[in-house]
């Protein structure tokens, strides 16, 4: 439970980001009335995970742990934060370059990759093992772990695509070039025990955003990357039968669907849905068994870069948007809680992010107990990790 047993005391009401750094690690957002806590110490850059990569591992009565990335002049490393005590511990050594946001709560391991090598470190013993080394003719990156924690997954890209990314490091420069190049990509799995690489599916579509179902060990979701209005983006593959299925087919000009994720029970894939792009905004879910869809409409200002669902799947959350985003939202820089109300969302603002630069996407996560939203932001200068309490602070 996040911050269980934290002492009750009067919290100062402040405009979030009004001072750099803020005068304390806790305050009440004066615009929303919700308690905000900086979880990470001001000791460098600290970033929580991408929105659909679950970072938590159980700690029992001593408090759950959250894995996150830290960077300073020594390099980059994975660290662990106790959500009850806010104690921070290093999990790995420093690396010049490291990636992967994969926590295995049953194995109690964290998987990550540096160069061509995949490692796993045990969160209790800190024992580290080499899981896999990609061969020279198949250099790829792991991004996800299946539900029974036996298979890692990812997508391989060609040397020609890697060269486009090298020459054009900014998304605005490489994105269209890679999409139009129609170069081969391959979905793959690697045994979490090590040593076994399986190539699943190759296509000249830009296969990306690879994530396993949280409940079905064989179900892998992926996307056709590219301009959303030009692609039927969301797909699944059965890793045993290799059957590929389209999750949502566009039905109108400039319709877009993306930033997809699985609900906690694995029965629904949810996504940002605009009919058409930049005009009308929804969060839509496709039932994977029946194919039926349900939509919740929200306003332009409530549109978020990424959305997520609560552990109990009763509420949603979003990280807001900014004036130059696809929604062109004039007042969208908020952390939001969304409660379904018929076919619409009823939104509640939790944190004012007017002082946050959305070049860093906040990427909200619900805490394991569902009582807080955890996000990253740079309104104190460097990126840090924060939590906002969903229950409003008594005035």
Automatic annotation (TrEMBL):
Domain Oligogalacturonate lyase as annotated: residue spans: 15-391
Signal peptide per UniProt: none
Phylogenetic classification of the source organism: Bacteria, Pseudomonadati, Bacteroidota, Cytophagia, Cytophagales
Renumbered residue ranges of the record's region Disordered: 1-21
Name of the protein described by the UniProt record: Oligogalacturonate lyase domain-containing protein
GO biological process: pectin catabolic process
Pfam families: Pectate_lyase22 (PF14583)
GO MF: oligogalacturonide lyase activity
């Amino acid at each position: 439970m996040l911050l269980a047993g934290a002492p009750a005391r009067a919290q100062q009401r402040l405009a979030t980001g009004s001072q750099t750094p803020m005068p304390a690690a806790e305050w009440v957002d004066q615009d929303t009335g919700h308690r905000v806590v900086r979880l990470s110490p001001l000791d460098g850059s600290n970033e929580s995970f991408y929105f659909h990569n679950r970072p938590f591992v159980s700690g029992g009565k001593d408090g759950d742990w959250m894995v996150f990335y830290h960077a300073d002049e020594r390099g980059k490393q994975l660290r662990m934060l106790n959500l009850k005590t806010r104690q921070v511990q290093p999990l790995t050594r420093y690396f010049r370059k490291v990636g992967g946001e994969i926590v295995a709560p049953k194995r109690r391991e964290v998987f990550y990759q540096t160069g061509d090598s995949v490692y796993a470190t045990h969160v209790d013993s800190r024992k580290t093992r080499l899981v896999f080394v990609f061969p020279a003719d198949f250099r790829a990156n792991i991004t996800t772990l299946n539900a029974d924690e036996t298979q890692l997954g990812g997508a391989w890209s060609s040397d020609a695509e890697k060269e486009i990314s090298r020459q054009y490091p900014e998304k605005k420069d490489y994105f269209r070039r890679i999409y139009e190049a129609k170069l081969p990509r391959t979905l793959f799995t690697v045994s979490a025990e090590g040593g076994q690489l399986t190539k699943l599916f190759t296509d000249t579509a830009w296969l990306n955003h690879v994530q396993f179902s949280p409940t079905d060990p064989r179900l892998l979701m992926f996307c056709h990357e590219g301009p959303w209005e030009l692609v039927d983006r969301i797909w699944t593959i059965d890793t045993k039968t290799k059957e590929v299925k389209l999750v949502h087919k566009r039905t109108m000009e400039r319709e877009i669907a993306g930033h997809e994720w699985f609900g906690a029970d694995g029965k629904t894939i949810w996504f940002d849905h605009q009919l058409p792009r930049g005009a009308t905004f929804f969060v839509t879910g496709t039932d994977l068994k029946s194919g039926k869809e349900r939509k919740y409409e929200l306003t332009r200002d409530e549109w978020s870069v990424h959305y997520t669902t609560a552990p109990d799947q009763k509420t949603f959350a979003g990280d807001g948007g900014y004036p130059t985003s696809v929604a062109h939202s004039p007042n969208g820089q908020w952390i939001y809680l969304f409660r379904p109300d018929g076919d619409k969302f009823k939104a509640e603002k939790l944190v004012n992010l007017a002082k946050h630069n959305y070049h860093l996407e906040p990427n909200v996560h619900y805490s394991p107990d569902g009582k807080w939203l955890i996000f990253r932001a740079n309104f104190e200068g460097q990126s840090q990790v924060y939590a906002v309490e969903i229950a409003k602070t008594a005035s």
